[in-house]
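User: Assemble these into one structure.

Assistant: Restating your components, then the assembled model:
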Amino acid sequence: DGGITQSPKYLFRKEGQNVTLSCEQNLNHDAMYWYRQDPGQGLRLIYYSQIVNDFQKGDIAEGYSVSREKKESFPLTVTSAQKNPTAFYLCASSRFSGPYNEQFFGPGTRLTVL
Amino acid sequence: AQTVTQSQPEMSVQEAETVTLSCTYDTSENNYYLFWYKQPPSRQMILVIRQEAYKQQNATENRFSVNFQKAAKSFSLKISDSQLGDTAMYFCAFGGDRETSGSRLTFGEGTQLTVNP
């Protein structure tokens, strides 16, 4: 089955540590996205990538970094510079061609800073 | 920049009744797409329905339909015959012309819908 996987489902980090969240898709989608969701709030865009080896900052990129070395993978690193990283993180992908830019989402990763 | 506003943070409805969720947006583009996503307690985001701005006919997917008013920049979601499984957070999203806006979507703050038995 085609889809998006995120791992791990739950992640705990000590203050001062960098952690990397995994996102993989086998939908052959060109574009991938990372969102942050805080309790009771909407989705805020962290980074997105429309093609391999290229990515753009979203609305809240500070303290985060990404890479896009392969079409199917878009890992997100939460660095120690991110002051309040505890949140739910969602990865999504979409086709860049075609009439729709509908996004498909992964199941999410819950990050907690101890 | 586009903005999406959902003015109802929470709503509730009795099972089998109809409920309408509101969404307004602001854009200067003429060609765009609008979406409603559902996020149940599992937190998996699921596409409910989509609308192309150049189509005047309102989109319908089974019990879900939209009222798209382009001039008013309004995009409401109607859920008929509400079911307990419809309990979720609902997000309205805007996708602009990719030539000018790229492929990103702009999401509203969400409306938490609770269906009561």
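The interface with chain B takes residues 30-31, 33, 40-43, 45, 48, 50, 56, 58, 88, 90, 92, 94, 96, 99-105, 107-108 of chain A (CB under 8 Å).
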